[in-house]
Amino acid sequence: MIFHSLEYALFLLVVFSIYWLLPKRGQNYLLLCASYLFYGWVHIWYVALLALTSIVDFTAARGIESQKHHRKKWLALSLGVNFSILFFCKYLDFFSGGHVLDVLHAIGFTWLDEKDAAMLLPVGISFYTFQSASYVVDVFRGQIQARRHLPDYLLFVSFFPQLVAGPIERAGHLLNQIEQPRRFHWERSRIDLLLILWGLVKKLVVADNAAVVCNKVFSLATPPWPVLWAGVFAFGIQIYADFSAYSDIARGSARLLGFDLMRNFRHPYNADSPADFWRRWHISLSTWFRDYVYIPLGGSRGGELRTLLNVMITFLLSGLWHGASWNFVLWGAWHGFLLVAWRLWESGPSSLSPQRIPRAARVCLVYVLVLFGWLLFRETQTEALIRYLTLNPLAASFMDWRVAIYLILTVCLYALPLLVVSSLENQLIREGWVGRVWSRNSVKIQVALGTLLLLVLVLLRSPQSSDFIYFQF
Amino acid sequence: MPPVTSSRREFISLLAVAGVPLASVGGLRAWEKWTDSEKPEFDQAWLDKLQSRKAEIALIGNSMIFHRLSTTHLEEQIAPLKTMTIAKGGWRSLAWLLGFKNLAAMCRPSPKLAIVVYRDYDFANPKLNIERRYLQEIRSMMVPGDQALLDRARDRDTGAGWKAGLEDFFVPDATVNLVRTKLTNFAYDGASVGADEETVRTHLDDVFDLDQLRPEMMDAGGAASDSVDEKNTRFTADPTANYLSRFVSASKSSGIKLIFYRVKRRPGADHQTLQSETLKNYVSDLKQWVESQGCIHLDETDDPQITLEMFRDGDHLHDAVRPAYTDLFLNRIRPHLPHAFQRKAKEEARP
């Protein structure tokens, strides 16, 4: 079930209506059933894996707490099972060189055919595996207590608004809310509806229209240089609008049910350094890697060289998290390299420091560097990537540049709402507009905003809609 | 029961935030319908244009016509006969039926022969390509009484009916088209400063020409006919399941001979098109039924002269081979061409 479908709208309406009639315990059971229904909509296999991961981690966390002498074994068991499942479902194809079916047959799954192999990778497995694993590690570190009520934990891992594409929540945040009673607020629900609507506009208007341009460009064997970069620009808009749309709809849906999910994006294209970009982009994942990979590796405690190495390892793994493909590894390496290079630049002579460049120029520079990363991210075939990287800008005709301008203008026109909000965010907050819109007494403004968003949605929705990009991860 | 901070005012506020936008969009759609109600949706200009061709043969289909056939070459070969083409990219059975019934058959003089060019299961799925852009095109061919055809197609699938109903209620098609066209034109204006806009448009078409696609895209493109779950496909002429019987009755009432022409799909390296047993059975039953109704069924799927090298993307052919393909097409339809051509062919054959 996808967020931008009528089925989901009905599903949410039914769950919401029953939910607020029930006591807390009943609410949790309802959400648990709804979440498993939501996830099992495509295939029952998905639900089986989800339940297996959750039960193993729940048991391991109990074991860590109750059997102090064997706590490391319990941790190893949990991480072993989690990452074996992840490896089996997500990376087997990659490491078997595309011969996943042969491997499956060789290890005894002889009855499986190509169709079954295609179903092997459940949507969102990387998200819930990381979320569940972080709970066990937190219990191991003594940061939280192991839970005794299995249904609450099952709900924590499977909570449907954020199950498929995050944000990756921590037990200390979401599980605590699951265990507490929730209150319904009429005025908050108005804002939640607007948040969902804003997410739908970002997905169906901005991302899907940008996707049309991007897909067209990337279907060309050798596009002219400016046309290629117009396509990459479109992809930059598409992936941000698409992923942040999912997060907004997830947050809006969760808020309607009385939960607060973390913000996953803070206008990442306003970043003025690579590190700043990662503080604004997919925040739940970058903080996960910081807390569970970078810091355990030693963080910045082992000297400059060791720090840079830790950064590179973290980003290579982050790239691999996105997908079992070399282009994602390259993309991770590119961002690791950017962080390392920027750090070295900052630690150089102060007269050459990036801080001496005006902020606007730094933002532009970071944007261009990130855009280059999107080319690595988008193009999955190495030969095509090499072909694209060796295109000669001077070989492009004047008309090619005009075509590129046409494509960029088209994307910008559809992305206008997003561009305005992103570029004026600080001003809107400073002048009190955001507060005014979200205020309890701003019904008229909220009605006007809702009408405007729905009109934009209906009038500018792309004729071709696609799944959320991050579903594949 | 959890504590609730409610009041009648806040409940009404929530309803307003949810309801006013919906009502506004619904209102826009209602206004559109109301202002459109005076205007007939049928595109008379289109019919007039077709009529002016005074053609004897109507070619009905989709890109399988304009990306495979060369109508210029065809007309040279069958002169003095002329053709009219009623086809747009992506069209399927409902658009074809309306094009046949309301355009070809309504021309005066009417054509003597209509050829509907199709792929595999095209007739088995009446709800295919009937929304959004296609809906506009379908409506432009509808006359009073045709709404039931569209409604039936929408209700074929569970859920499709109520979704289509919602779209009908909320999506202001005319305004959507107007806004999108304005945005596209604005982008063209911006990109054409100091240059001829038409040149930019032409260059854009050249950049994105099908010949520029990656090879793997060419293999996948144009294969949009695979839209029926094969397991559930058994041939039926039930008029509630598809439009085949309506084609036949329109052919009978107009006196236009009707050919159902099945094109060869992209073959493999051995130049053979892979076909499942289910598909073979379906086509065989379709052919039998079509012929029992006094129409003609032609199938080029097993033609070894149509080779893989002729294909460009998906089921589309290279421009260079279109005349040669047209000759193969003509050889198949030749025995069924109107008498004027038969007479001329006989005269030319005399020593």
Describe this structure in words.
The complex is a heterodimer of chains A (473) and B (351). Chain A is an all-alpha fold and 473 residues long. Chain A has 21 helices and 1 strand. Chain A is globular, with a radius of gyration of 23 Å. Chain B is globular, with a radius of gyration of 24 Å. About 3% of the residues of chain B have low confidence. Chain B is of the alpha/beta class and 351 residues long. In chain B, helix 4 crosses helix 14. Chain B has 15 helices and 6 strands. At the A-B interface, strand 1, helix 11, helix 19 and helix 21 of A face strand 1, helix 1, helix 8, helix 9 and helix 10 of B.
H and E order of chain B? EHHEHHEHEHHHHHHHEHEHH
What separation lies between the terminal Cα atoms of chain A?
16 Å
Distance between the termini of chain B: 100 Å
**Quick one: biggest sheet of chain B?**
5 strands, parallel
The shape of chain B is: globular
Low-confidence residue ranges of chain B: 220-228
- Percentage of helical residues of chain B? 40-55%
Written as H for each helix and E for each strand, in order along the chain, the element string of chain A is HHHHHHHHHHEHHHHHHHHHHH
Sheet/helix structural class of chain B: alpha/beta
Number of domains of chain A: 2
Rg result of chain B: 24 Å
The quaternary state of the protein chains shown equals heterodimer
Helix/strand-derived class of chain A?
A: mainly alpha
CATH fold call of the largest domain in chain B: Rossmann fold
Write down the overall mean pLDDT of chain B. Answer: 82
Helix percentage range of chain A: over 70%
Short description:
Chain A is mainly alpha-helical and 473 residues long. Chain A is built from 21 helices and one strand.
